Structure formats: structure tokens, C-alpha cells
Amino acid sequence: MQNLTSPPPGQAAGKLIEVLDAAIVGAGFAGLYMLHRLRGLGMTARIFEAAAGVGGTWWWNRYPGARCDVESMQYSFSFDEKLQQEWHWSERFAAQPEILRYAEHVADRFGLRRDIRFNTRVTAAHFDEAVGRWTILTDRGDRVSARYCIMATGCLSSARVPDIPGIESFRGRTYHTGRWPHEEVDFTGQRVAVIGTGSSAIQAVPVIAEQAAQLFVFQRTPNFSIPSRNKPMDEEYERWWKSDYAAHRRKARMMRTGILYHIDERSALDVSPEERRRVYEERWAAGGTAFMGAFVDLLRNQAANDTAAEFVRGKIAEIVKDPTTAALLQPRDHPIGTKRICVDTHYYETFNRENVRLVDVRSAPIEAITRTGLRLRNGAEYAVDSIVFATGFDAMTGAVLAVDIRGRSGASLREKWAAGPRAHLGLMVAGFPNLFLITGPGSPSVLSNMMVSIEQHVDWLSDCLVHMRARGATCIEPTQEAEDAWVAHVAEVGNRTLYPKANSWYMGANIPGKPRVFMPYVGGVGTYREECAAIAAQGYPGFRMSAPQDAAAAAQ
Ligand code: FAD
Ligand code: NAP
Prior knowledge:
The chain starts with 14 loop residues before the first strand and ends with a helix. With about 550 residues, it is of the alpha/beta class. A hairpin with a 4-residue loop joins β14 and β15 (about 380-385). The chain has helices spanning about 30-40, 55-60, 80-85, 95-110, 200-210, 235-245, 245-255, 275-285, 300-320, 325-330, 345-350, 400, 415, 450-470, 480-495, 525-535, 550-555; strands at about 15-25, 45-50, 115, 120-130, 135-140, 140-150, 175, 190-195, 215-220, 225, 340-345, 355-360, 365-370, 375, 380-385, 385-390, 405, 435, 475-480, 545. It is about 30% helix and about 15% strand. The strands form five sheets. Strands 1, 2, 3, 4, 5, 6, 17 and 18 form an eight-stranded mixed sheet that branches. The protein has a five-stranded parallel sheet with strand order 7-16-8-9-12, with helices on one face. Bound molecules: flavin-adenine dinucleotide and NADP nicotinamide-adenine-dinucleotide phosphate (NAP). NADP nicotinamide-adenine-dinucleotide phosphate binds near residues 68 and 505.
């Protein structure tokens, strides 16, 4: 067992720098709102953030073309009416610099920075049963004692570069989309390689193509992408949202994805081929992820899904002039939407440019990175000046498990999650009292408008802490039975959909050796919210609450 005076094994002692009610790890939107709420409850709280600034995703992902794919009127906080009325978004889908400015504005507006320790990575968090507190260690050698440890570490913050031999020998520049430099990167006149064709690459490729002399896009698996139809913010649309923001947000919170858009309640198979085409054309013209709301059963019924997939494959064939390239860009290995649907600005059109070439690395994988570029297994060599890794993240669990988290009796979270993540409601883990996960695995998280999910988790947790305070409790932990039941429910609901058919990062399939488990909760944001609210209203069944003196007893 760990206590406040002895550091966890393998860690330097460090000085005890502070004693807090709550330590929050991460200063993205989740951490910022969490800090704001805890302060409102009169708690002492501090954020520890590895980056030099706030914004999380939007601090790190500065690659060309980065922007949100949930409309900005919805991809923003709802907790403060003045904030949402006063902030003006310049585009339908704001670009990264504007979203980062928004995060900075929120931090300044609510005076959050004074309680954030930047450039500080949390390396370990160990629960001390004797005192019912967490000891948190940082890479600066600090030691912090906190009653509550809140992981706001992000689902997509652990950037991943594939293990390709020879990376260190490359003489040019390398970049990862999720770790983009802060100074401007200018590809003018360069030969550039982009590895990957997920959402990040699909946004970056059209912009890099405009600068580079030659762009090679190395594709292993094509993805479905819908045009964003991004445009300057329509004043009337903004007025409509702001005329009753609270009511619109209330509706959005009950939607399946936490996004307010029309979901056609018909089956794709119950309408005529002409009507189906009309609906798809309409959604394609409107742009964005709302395409997947064209019919109610697109993610449940393979035959229904096939109609949407075929429509998009047809669009790719219409847009891309070279038939071989068009065929390569047409996804055929997964149902549409079972990998995160991409949203683009002229992605497919970019392959009609003279200076852009799609390289199929499914048939001939990248074998090595050399001093001058890339070599494929078939012996083909590509000489480039820069390589952009758009190769994604160790999603949902990567950032949490990068921290050495130990609960009761020194049990390690890494070991507990060795066969896949287990958490009650995606929020708390049995055996790890007072440890909270914001948008953790088993919650709707990445299948939703993350702002809605973040606010819901932070609000639920804040209400829970108020409830505990009123009862004199300082320790909370889910029961093993409740956690098992929830994990089984998440799997069962997932298995009723087409999602498990894809080799997606939702399934952990992008990380060699990662357990293949469908991690997010696909039951819907509204349903999930109701479930969480019902648990709170019933006095938190499935959770054990205790005071410090009986905290250790609660474990027995
Ligand atoms: P993050 O923003 O990821 O913040 C987590 C923070 O924790 C990071 O700053 C990280 O440095 C810090 N951290 C992690 N581990 C440690 C540690 N051990 N010690 C200290 N600090 C640590 N979602 C949508 O809903 N709509 C979108 O349009 C959308 N677009 C996206 C575009 C991109 C390019 C990416 C990568 C993701 C996108 N997402 C989108 C998901 C996005 O991650 C969330 O919307 C949201 O920003 C997550 O906020 P967060 O605070 O939970 O996590
Ligand atoms: P990603 O979806 O995981 O895509 C990674 C890409 O890299 C895939 O195409 C993958 O191919 C490829 N890859 C990995 N290793 C490779 C190798 N060794 N050789 C060749 N190709 C390799 O990552 P991402 O594009 O960064 O997106 C992650 C998530 O972030 C998105 O799904 C989304 O949720 C979010 N995001 C959102 C937006 C937005 O529009 N707002 C933008 C960016 C990101 P395989 O598929 O074959 O593995």
C-alpha cells in the first residue's frame, strides 16, 4: 500500500507540493470545465497539463486543414448563457486556430489559468487506502495529495507513430498531425509524403497539395468521407441558435449523437430506390456527418448500410477522374460509419491534381523509411523532403494507461484493463475509489459531440460530489457487480450494430497487441444521459460511498 510519505516504487520521492481536494489531469475542454465546476463547489483543484497551453486536442493538432466536424454552434460549451451568446464563430465548421482561441477565451474568462500547472505530465497516481487519498506524481518530480483524481486526459491525445524500421535515419523533416509544431510549416516546393488516410489526413491532404511540389498519399485502407460544405457562418443560422440556445441544446443532449440534426426514422430498405437516392443526394449536398442520419438503420442493418456505402462509392467514382485511383479510394472493407466517418473539403478532388499521387500500401506495405524517403515491400522507392504521419492515436485508453494508476492494494489499472477497459458508466472503475474518467471507455464519448458528453460527465460528477458532501461521504467507488453489468451491456449494445465489423480504433484494432473490444457506448447520448440521471436520482445504486474512517472497510 502507498502512503503520502513513501513514493510509489521506481519513482523519485519528490517534494509534496500541495494537498488538494481534486487533481485534474488535462487542460482540454474536459479539464477546463471540470476545474470551473469544482471551484464553484468551493473545492481546491488544480489541473496538471503536459502542454504549454490550454485546449488539448486543439493545442496539439495544428496541422493544415484541422477543423471540427461537428458544427461550431454545437461544438462549444453550453454551461454559460453569456458565453454562448457572446462568442461568434466565423465559419460553419471552425478551424483549429479559432477553436484554440475559444479554449483560451474560456480559460481567461473564468480565470482558470492560475490553477493550471503547464508543461507538467502526470506519470503516476496511487491510492492510499489508509487516508483515502491519491498521491500524484509528475515528470517534474512533484508529489501532490488529492482526495479525487480526475482523468481528463482525452480520448485522442496519445499520438501514435507506427513502428516502421529506419525512421531515425530519415534526413528530411517528420511530423505527426497530433503533435504539429507551433511555428508555421511551409511545404512550398517540397516533395511530401502523407502516411494515413483517416480524418486527419483527409483534412490535411487538400491543403498540403496546394503548397507541395509533389504529394504522395500512402493509403493502406480507404475511408468514407462526406463533403463538409463548410462556409462562413450564416448570420440567420447563428441568430436562430442564439434566439433560444438553451432549448436547442436541451434537444441536442437527447439526440443519439448529441448533435441536433434530423434523423430520418425510416429504414433505408422501406423506401424506393429513387427516394433513397433523393435522400442521399440531399444529405450529400448539405454536407457533414448528418449524412449518417439519412435513415435510421444504417448502422444496424448491413443491407441498409450497403445502399449508403454504394452511394458514396458512386460519388468517389464521379469526382476522381482516373479510374484506378477512384477504385483505390473506394472503401470496401467496412460498413460506412463503422469507422469514424470523415468530413472533408475537396479531398477526393485533390486526386485530380497533377502533383498528387495515391500510393497503395495495402498491396505493398511500407517496408522501411530510408535516409531519403520511403521504400515499399515491392521495392518501389519514394524520395521525399518531409513525411507527415497522419497515423492516429492509441485511442480511448492510451493516455489513461500511460499513467501508472494503482488503486486498492496497489492493484494496477494496466493489469485490470489488460483484456480491455472496464469501467462503470465509463466513469469509474471498481477497485479505484475516487478516480474519475471524463468520457472514459464505456461512455458515448467518441461517438458523440464530445462537448455534450464532456459537459454531461462533468455535471454528473459535480452533482455526485455535492451529494456525497451532504451525506458526509468522501469516498466513492462502483461495485464490481455494477461495473460487470455495465461492461456487458456496452458489449451487448455494440454487438447489435455493425461497428464490430470494422478494424477501427473504436475496436483498438489500430494498435498492435491491443485487445479487440468495442470501447465506446453506442446506446445513444440521450439514453445514456437518462441512465446516469436515474442512478443519481435513486441515490447512486451500484456505487459505494463512505467516509474516510470506513473507506478501508468498504473494500472488505
Ligand atoms: P483533450 O482535448 O485531448 O485534452 C486532454 C489533455 O490532457 C491534453 O492537453 C493532454 O496533453 C493532457 N494530458 C494527457 N495525459 C496527460 C498526463 N499524463 N499528464 C498531463 N497532461 C496530460 N470531437 C468532436 O466532438 N467534434 C469534432 O469536430 C472533433 N474534432 C476533432 C479533431 C481532431 C483533429 C481530433 C484529434 C479530435 C477531434 N475531436 C472532435 C475529439 C476531441 O478530442 C474532443 O472533441 C475534445 O477536444 C476532447 O477534449 P478533452 O478535454 O476530453 O481531451
Ligand atoms: P486514424 O483515423 O486512426 O487514421 C490513421 C491512418 O493511418 C489510417 O488510415 C491508417 O491505416 C494509417 N496508418 C497507420 N499506420 C500505418 C502504416 N504503418 N502504414 C500505412 N498506413 C498506416 O487517425 P486520424 O486520422 O488522426 O483520426 C483519428 C480520429 O480523430 C478521427 O477518427 C476523429 O475521431 C478525430 N479527428 C476528427 C477530425 C475532424 O474532422 N474533426 C479530424 C481529425 C481527427 P489503416 O486504417 O489501414 O490502419
